[in-house]
Amino acid sequence: MINSYRIALAGNPNTGKSTLFNALTGLRQHTGNWAGKTVSLAEGTVKHKDKTYQIIDLPGTYSLFSNSVDEEVARNYIVFEKPDVTLVVLDATSLERNLNLALQVLEMTRNVIVCINLIDEAEKKGININERILTRKLGVPVVKISARNKIGFPMLLDTIDRLVSGTIECNPVQTTYSEEIEEKITTIESKIRSLVGNSISSRWLALRLLDGDEALLNEFNRRLVLNDQVRREA
Amino acid sequence: MNMKELYSEAQAISSPQLRDDIVQQLYSRSRELCDVGVSYTKTKADTRTEKLDAIFTSKIWGFPIMLTMLGVVFYLTIAGANIPSSMLAEFFGWLENYITSAFQFLHAPDWLHGILVLGLYRGSTWVISVMLPPMAIFFPTFALLENYGYLPRVAFNMDRLFKFVGAHGKQSLTMAMGFGCNAAAVMSSRIIESPRERMLAILTNNFVPCNGRWGTLIVLASLFMAASFTGGFKSLVTTGVIVGIVLFGIVVTFFVSWALSKTLLKGVPTHYTLELPPYRRPKFFDTVIRSSLTKSWTVLVRAVKVAAPAAILTWVFANIHIGDTSILLHAVGFLDPFGKMLGLDGYIMLAFILGLPANEIVLPILLMGYLSTGSLTEVDSLVDLKQIFLDHGWTWVTALNVMLFSLLHYPCGTTLVNIYKETKSKKWTFLAFLIPTVLAILVPFIVYQTAKLFGWV
Question: Which residues in chain A are contacts of B188 at CB distance < 8 A?
Fold first, then answer.
């Protein structure tokens, strides 16, 4: 379908992804104030201007290192299913801890919007967030919203619209690691690129291989086999 | 070169503390970003959450508060559901008269009236009038607690007990989901990282009564356990019995988790982080509407979908004769000796077997079984209901054992399918069936034999 895009919602548990999902799609996904409520993928659609967006609510995770099944589900979706935009939802009241997930997503995919939720609660607590500085430092749009009170939605939808139509571009600023790690990344990154091309971020894959992410290796091989089957049948 | 070779190559140059370095770097960058991007105008931090946590998760008050909350939720459900339940039952009974007249007017054959009205209509409306009111109260109340942020505190309080039996503290969250639906709770066990502890959570989830069993538990508790009380006090006693049953289910969960972690699923519980979110005032209206309308509705539709064919089937079984007895009675006669050993009877055993697709239909099937053999009384009120049970030789021990069997027996079909999907193992799915079944036979057996020994029945 032309003018139809897929938007994935990622973020720490209990940051209001499902609330945002419900508010955007008008659906009634079960919400709750506890970490780990969403375990499978929920989907819904929202129309804005001339475009249709399919919203996918990923399970909330603290990291994307495939420690548990839900982390794998979220990770696999972002990397292998390649949504047009990945919306990272962060809790404004505990931004420091939440940002680390956003940094991981920035390594995995290009089109990311950082969505700082619960902004009204943060302001009540006297927390002021300068989204322009964060935008510059991260290289991707940062938008402040309150999902439960529907604050900041026009801005969010416009940002999504401008990103998918190519008016703005994301240049996610990568985290630089220690010299030792960077050297190791360089050693295998070029080999990875010759294997997978540009389909997956070679830097991220290098990091995962160095980290010994066997679950990812298995997933990779599984998908390779599936692709072969599809090709042979065609 | 393929991915596997690359992986080995990367592993050869990697070091064990690489992950720590990566995580540390990510965190220090997060901190730098916050240093430049976030400013604070109020120096004094909000301490409301901390103050509340000091009470809700306190060593002294944590458990009493939890029990009270559980009791209050159940009391509201039981006391509030009473009147709407009987109103619905009366309404459906009144409507049935008109439907029957319509059938007579059209000169419809008796068997058609039997299948559609006595089977389908009675079965489904019974499910509706018994289940809808409790659900419409229980789900919103529970959802309010959930959206407020109380559930993680329960997990926090329970953590030490779970650790003690070798299970994972987050298991209490999957158990909380189980109050709604065991099938959904099995899926929610994905939040548990370690496969071993996740398996424990899956295998024991069934010991939390799901909403399909609420109806059975509440009806039997109020009919037989609180029979000699009246008014508000009656609801209170019923609540006490229900809380007792739920607590017994939790004790069994601990026991089975402990036994498994000493035998089939050996291991030490892993550490984990449990986030205690700030208490948030729930959007009252949204929460209530969403959970009572949407969730109750979906559960109800599912129940009626299963109840309708089961009701028809039961009616057919009760009315097709082989020799001079019906198929139903053949089955009942076959199961009766076994049921009697547990203080139950053949009808009850058959109802639980036919109720495998969904626990909601166990009681309706049981009633239809009883009614098909005697005169077809209309069940307009709970008093009639009790008379039917008494006519078939029920005592309070029968009621207690049915409740225990319902609490402990094998998971429903949907849950078993989900267990297979999540574990991808026939062996574990079979165990998830076997463990509860053995317990559901053992416990009522012991209760009944003890009661007989002491001459209580």
Answer: 36-37, 39
